[in-house]
Every structure is written in structure tokens, then in C-alpha cells.
User: What shape does this take?
Amino acid sequence: MTAFFQSLGMNYEWAWFIATVCGILLIALPLMLAVAMIIYVDRKVWAAINLRRGPNVVGPLGLLQSFADGLKVFLQETIIPSAANKGIFILAPIVTFTVALGAWAVIPFDAGVVLADINVGLLYILAISSLSVYGVVMAGWASNSKYPFFSAMRASAQMISYEVSIGFILVCVVLYAGSFNLTEIVMSQKGHGLGIVNGYVFNILLFPMWVMFFISSLAETQRVPFDLTEAESELVAGYQTEYSSMSFALFWLGEYANILLMCSLNTILFFGGWLPPIDWAPLYYVPGIIWFLLKTFFFFFMFSWVMATVPRYRYDQLMRLGWKIFLPISLLFVVLISGWLMFTRYA
Amino acid sequence: MTDFSQSLALIAAEELLTVVGLVLLLCAAWMGDKASRMISIVAVAALVACAFIAAPALCGGLMGPERVAFMGQYTADAFAAFAKLLIYASGIASLIVAPRFFGQVGAMRAEYPILILFAVLGMNMMVSATDFLTLYIGLELNSLAAYVLASFLRNDERSAEAGLKYFVLGALASGIILFGMSLTYGFTGSTNFTAVALAMDGTLATGALFGLIFVLAGLAFKISAVPFHMWTPDVYEGAPTPVTTFFATAPKVAALALTMRVALGAFGTQVDAWQQIVIFVSLASIVVGALGAIGQSNIKRLLAYSSINNVGFLLIGLAAATQEGASAMLVYLAIYVAMSVAGFVVVLMLRDAEGRPVEVIADMAGLSRTRPALAWALAAVMFSLAGIPPLFGFWGKFVVFQAAVNADLIALAAIGIAASVIGAFYYLKVVKIVFFDEPANVVAESGESGVDALAHKVMLLIACLFISPLGYLLTPWLGELADKAAAALYFVG
Amino acid sequence: MIHIIAFYLFAVLLIASAVLVIMSRNPVHSVLWLILAFFNAAGLMVLVGAEFIAMLLVIVYVGAVAVLFLFVVMMLDIDFAELRAGFVKNFPLGILLAVVLLAELVLGFGAYRAGTLKLGEADGTAATIAGRSNIESIGALLYGEYLFLFEAAGLVLLVAMIGAIVLTHRERTDTRGQNVSKQNKRRAEDATVNVKPEVGKGVTL
Assistant: This one.
């Protein structure tokens, strides 16, 4: 894109600047639209599994429900509790939202369709996703109220616990791919399974890693069954309790943008990203971005499915799963996979 | 890919300690504290095996490039082997005396031998370090294990206090060393001792001088030399006695060997820059150690001051900055380890009727009438620490002073000898209380029986025989080994 | 141009947030400023081409260390009046330290300007290997030349972990934990009995 703006007569730096801004807008705006729609999908799937109808009033089939909700919160008054720590209270949802968008910079939607093709892409994602806890912690502390505070405590402990095993799972993928660059990780999955199927998930050593990654991504995004931070039966609405109107909406948007990010990471790391599922020439005529979106939305469907069917974990069970089960198993697989690769690839 | 097979063969002892430590850690996690005796036995066996690995290097007087591993980061020469043998001996001693002491308060835990093993591993790295990075990592590995060991009796307030004090001040010292190391690295462009020595040859840059001073100051903390000695009495008193036994011996040996390696190796081309400092530190340690001990009522504190005092005498050998001085220091270190082990084993054997440890000196009054053997052992230790001639402790002081005189440091030697007279006062005071005061009848009349008590007695017997006049039979042999080790330290290849 | 703007942006923010770490009265604010400082430091590292270190800084310091730090600070009950009382008492000492540090800086800088301080010359041994990303270069060093020290550093961390557990872990006997494998092993027939009680006789369990 930079080359295009340069052909319009700009010097390199301006062209780069404008191209980057355009790239950000091209990612962020459709993402916001997608978030609005998947909130609707989420509610519909949930309702269908519960044998309900879900949103069906606003617009055809209720399609405009999310926009109506958005308009509603936009018109509401932003209430800041008098005992709250004002600056941080306002900053918290902004942090959550910004961080949720920031990670998308390195996600490749198709071959070469990526805002920043950096060689530490995966580490960047890990770094940014580790920042997302700050929104919750800041909100919880600044609200100066006990339920949000409990929620913040839980959130920070939960995020740290699951980031550890996610880190090891990512190491397994990186060992196979030989790169931290997400585009290279996708390309290395081409014909990975017996030369026919694309995707690391068809590897017997990586399949358990994907299962753990999927569950960890539920925990990392604080989705059911790991939504301890906003467990309504104990903590009212967790860290969001004191929030209203747009500040509340920003949390909501950030949360769903994070969920989509985790879905796309499942796609990129284990299901071959924009590659078609089978390494067969005719399938490559379908644009890569279609495959990417199909896979991502499939994972979102799985997230909704889990939400509608699985009861919430207790906090000690959550910690046990993270530290006593995922951590040892993922460590074991790092050893197994690096041993196997030493034996086969680097012998 | 670099070929590491030779390097890996040279660090066999470290590998053994690591593997045994990790396996024992798993045993501890699965079997719990019930397995602590088994784990202790295996740990002792591992240390003995390591001693067999180190011994040939010392007896053969090995040195030179074929003993250097990992591109100059590590050296397994005769000097390292000498220090390692002393460290293993102290490690074994503190493992053997632990079960009875901790068993008394029901606090023997499986992690104790494991922490000792890792501390020994860290000290192995320290004495073999020929690179500032190895030095620092070894030092930290040893120190972290030591902080935990100091507060091992976690329900005991004094033990917790000792651990915390040791940790805070130790972290400060590590920071000072790191600061000095980074200055040295910045001004010489290398962390390798040989390269640093080469780069420092000639006029010394001010920055490098600062680096040198900071590194030596940090190391002075680790060997508890004055003016960085403040932590020693509190930590020695508060830490559980087996741990104090360990602190007084192994880390001292390791840190002193490390100081020798740094001062004579890395900074060996700038002797003038640090000689004055070492002379000051050694005299200050002798005087403060002697004067500080006089007012003490707790035997562990007294032994702490005695160790400060002894470090002062040891540093006289370093101040000489000759191969003879280094050899003398090693001889002194060997004798010092034996004296300290004997002293602390006596303290461990002093128990009242209910089995509680007796640490107050006044409670030992008249010990000669109730427990004559123990009293004589204590007297031997005290006379030896004071350096009174028939006992072996005298020989250590003698070789160190001889080295100082040969290096034209006659004034230093004279002051040192004069100061050791002050030191003799409090040692003799303890002997007087034990032999001539009215019995306080606090210490239980008879010792316990059983394997642990027997082990204490055997260790005490061996250590006492070593420091008794019979020790002089060993002088040619000990001197020869120390000479070989010092030659390895001075080897320029 | 953008490079320079980015550099000054990160540098100014870094210094400003570092100053605010010590200036802000609320410790939680201090930690948050500290996080911003870390983040900007990472930005500076990206600018000099050390992207791996930058990411590690964010992941380790911002993502884990600072979270725990914030966790602790948020739960502390700090008495600000008491803190300020200590401030007055320790003020002379603080000034003394500041003067010493300032003198050191002036001396060091003066000596450097006068040419009496000579820094070691860069000989290029620490440069990244040509044609490799800096992850690969760091990996080659850590698992090559510094293998021994790298593994030993791992042991240092292990000992720290053993220490933390030895000193703080207590076996609780007054709580009833969940034994998951026992629960999973339990079957309906172990837990229930089918009885047909006769009328008026009752059931003995």
C-alpha cells in the first residue's frame, strides 16, 4: 500500500504513514462491525441451544439488535461513582479496548495481508494479550467497591496462570514452524498432515496442544466456563459493576474483539490460517481471506456452544486446571516435541 | 555448533550434583519429609562421589588449557579441586549433624539436604569461576540456597530474622558486586579473568579502579570481613546450628577461594591497587573480631566473631600477593574448616536435660566435671582457634605470617601477631568457664545414644585429631597439596 | 523522520513516567506509571532493533511482574500520614545521598569530558550474526557459548522456587480439599443402594 501512495507523489515517510493509518482503519472498522454481529450471533446460538428465539425484534430477524444496544448505551449518561478514582476509572475501559484492537496489527488475513509483518509476531500477541488484564485490574481497583475489587484479583491471578501454559503451547507450535512470524507459521502448515491436509491440528503431538490452547483461550478471554471475573451469582457483574453507558460498551467491545482474536489465533496456529483445509489445487481458487473468516467464525461458534452448555468452574478448580494439569502437560509436550524434532528434523 | 564434549567432561561433579539434586527433589515431592533420612544419605553419597572426582585433579596438580571448559568460563584445576574438597567435607558435616538437631523440634524436612546440594553446586561454580558471569551465577545459586537455609526453622523468630537480614544485606552485596563487574567489563571489554588481567596491565583507568574496589567490597561482604561483617553474628546466632556449621565453613572457603582467584587472577596485574585495601581489611577484621567477641554471652555469636577474626588472618596471606601466600591461605583454610566443624559439633552436642540446645556460655560452667570429654574437645578447639602452639591452629597462622614476612610485609605480620594475643583472651575465657567455674548443671550429664549421636562423636573425634598436635604429621602432605593448588592458581598459559 | 519522532515520543514518555513513579502519592498510581515506563522502554528497544528483548520486557515485566506487584500494592493499606512523617525524619539523609550521587555524576561526567575516562572499545563480538533475526542470535549465544551459565541460571530460579515453597507452604489439615480422581472413580453403584423397605419396618443404612 505504501508503494501505491508513493506513486501518488508522496515521499516515502508520508506514504508509509498514510498507508499505515488506512491499514489500521481497514482492520478496525470491519472488526467493530464484526464484533457487533458476533454479539448477535452469540445470543442467537445461545438462545437456540436453550430452545429460545433470542433477539428477533429490531430489524429483520433481529439483525440490528446490537446496533440498537449500541445506540442505547451511547445516549445514556456516563456515571462515575463519587468514591471512584476518577482518572483510572475512565482509563480502564479505554485500555481494554485499545489493547484488544492493538493485537490485530500482526494477524495475517491472507498471504501478505497483514498490517505489520514482524518477525516476533507471536511474541507481540503474547505481550499485548498480557496487557489486557490491566483494563480489568484498573477498573476493579478504581471503582472502589468490593465486587469489582474481587473481580480484579481473580482476573490478574487467572490471566497469569493461563498465560504460562499458553506460552508453552505456543513454544510447541514455534518449534514445529521454526519461526515466530505468523505468516511463516501459517505457510509451514501447508500439507502438514501426510502432505494432504493443512494445519498443525492434524499432528498427533500437536492435537492435545490445540485442545489445551482452545480451553486456555476460553480462560484468557474470561468466557464461560471461566468467567469468574464477572460471575453474576457472586460478584454482581464483576469489574463492570460500577460502569455504565459508553465506558461499559467499551469493555463489551474489547471483550468480544479479544474473543475474535483468540478465535483467529486458533485458526492461524493450528488450522492453517488462510489456507484451505485440504492441500488441493482447486480449493486455492477461493480467496484466502474467506477460508480465514470461515475458520474464525467456526471457532466463535464453538465459543458460543461452550457458553451455552458448560457450567461455570469454581475458582479453585480453575487454578487447579491451570497449574496442576495444563502446566505439567504442556511442559511435557515441549520436551516431547523438541525431542521428536531433534530426532527427525535435526538429526 | 561448538563441541562441548571436553567441557562437559570437566564439569562432571556439577552434573552429578545437579542430577542427584533434581532426582532427590522429586523424591522429596513424592515421599515427603519421611524420606529426609534417605535423601540425606544419598546426598552425602553424592558429595563423596564428587570428592572422588575432584581428588585426582588436586593430587595430579592439574592446570593449564586442557582444564578450561566453556571457552574460559570455567576452570577445573588443582586450586578449584582443593577448595572443592574442603567444601564437600563441610557439606557432608552439615548434612550429618542436621537430623538430630531438626528432629528435636520436629522440623527435619526433605528439602534441607537438597538445598545444601544446590548450595554446594553454586560454590563449585564459584571456586572454578574464571569469568565474572560464572562468578555471579555461582554466587547467587549459593546465596539463594543460603538465605532459605538461614530461615529454615520458619516458626522460630530468630531464624526468620537471620534469613531476612542475610537476604537483605546479601542482595545489597550482590548489587555492589554486579556494579563493580559492569564497571570492570565496561573499562576492560571482557568478563574473562585472563582478558581482564591483560586489559588492566599498565596504567589503571579510574573507572576500572572503581570496578575493582566494588567487586572486592562485595566479596568482602561474602567472606564477612570488616567493615562488611555486621550481619555475621546475627545470622550465625539466628540460623539453626547445623546451618551455621555450614555457613562458617563451606561458603567461607568458596568466597575466599573466589576472592583469591579474582584478586590474584583478574586483578593480578594491579596488585598495588588492592594490596592496601586488603591489608586494612585484614587488620580491621582481626581487631574487630577479637574485640567484638569479648562481650559475647552466646557461643554461636562468639564463634561468629572468631570467624571474622580468622578471616582477617587469612587475608594476611592474600595481602602478601605471592604464590607462597596463596598456598599458606589454603593450608589455613583447611585447618580453619576442621576447627569450625569441631567447634560447632561441640555446640550441637551441648544439650540440656530436655534435649534443648545450650548456647549460653555461662550455662557451660563446670562442663569439665560433668562431660569431661566434651570439655576437652571444646578446650582443644578454643586453643587451636587462638593459635596456641601445640595445636594445629598455630601452624595455619604460622605459614600465613611467614608468607607475609617473605613478602616484606613485616609490619603487617607484627601487628597481626600482636592482635592475636587479644583474641587469645576470649578463647581462654571460655576455657576458664568450662574448667574452673562452679558447675551450672544445665548441660545434660550423659549424651544420647543412637546412630546420630555416634556420628557426632566420630566427626568430633576426627576433627579433634586433625587439630591436635597429631595434625603436624600431615603438614608435608597438606603443604604439598596446597603448593600444587597455588601453582595452578598462578599458572599463566 | 518518523523514527526520530517515535524516539522522542518514547524517550520523553519514559522519563516523564519514571519521574511520576516516584512523584505520585498513591502507590497504585506509581505502579501504573511504572508499567507505562516499561512499555516505553520496550518501544525504545524496538527502535534500536532489539525486538526480542522488547517483547520479553513487555511479557515478563509488564505482563507478569507488574501484575503481581500491582496485586500486592492494591491490597496494602498504606498510611500516607505516617509515610510523610518518616519523610521529614529521613530528609537530611536523603539530601546527603542525593548530593553524593550528584557529585559522582558530575565527577564521572567531568572526567569523561576531560578525556581521563576511557571506555572499552566495541570489538563487534556482541553484534547480531549477519542475516539472522535477533532471536536466532540470542539463541545461538545462550545455547552455544553460554550454555553452562544459562543452565546454571535455570538452577538459580529453581532454588528460588524451592525456597519460596519451603518457607511458606503449610499443609492445611483444617480444610477439606477436592479429590478429583476420587470423585471421578466413584460410580453410582458404590454410592447408592436399592432397597425395598417393608411397610412399617424402616431402613438401616
